[in-house]
Design a protein that fits this description.
The protein is mainly beta. The protein contains 2 helices and 12 strands; from the N terminus they run E-E-E-E-E-H-E-H-E-E-E-E-E-E. The protein has a 6-stranded antiparallel barrel with strand order 1-2-5-4-3-6.
Length: 176
Amino acid sequence: MAGAPEHLAVGRIVSPHGLRGEALVFLLSEEESRFAEGARLHLSPTPEGEGGMVEVTIEASRPHKGKRILKLDRFADRTMVERRVGWYLVVPYEAAEAERADDEFFLHALMGRDVRTADGRLLGQVTDILDSDGPPLLEFGQVGGGRRLLPFVKEFVAEVTDQAVVVTPPDGWEEI
């Protein structure tokens, strides 16, 4: 894949959890084995692994309200986690690509794609994928200005193609 990044974000540190160096992590990957005890990842200030990386090993891992609580070997206390809030856990892109199934895609690959309704009407282009307490939110620029958000769930995202994200927003959503 031409222009592919060297690394791919699989998680983002959201906040410290407790006082003993545990981090609450928003997952950007559904591959559970990436977050198992003993797994090795890299910590980076960017989702592409630019700006310097540090290898980390997961010492403990457990689910928590749609996210994951990780104890990383580099974090001894809460203050160390606080310094890395917003940082990413990344893996080599080639390794992630090799594990990807044909019907799977990377969220970062949606950036810039058209957002269209099932009948083909253009609503805008993907500008960001935002984390929330629930599912990720698809942010896209509307034709004519403004930004819209739509939960990235099967009920509203009908299909993802190489060219577009096809959505079926709920009734009345476009009038809001």
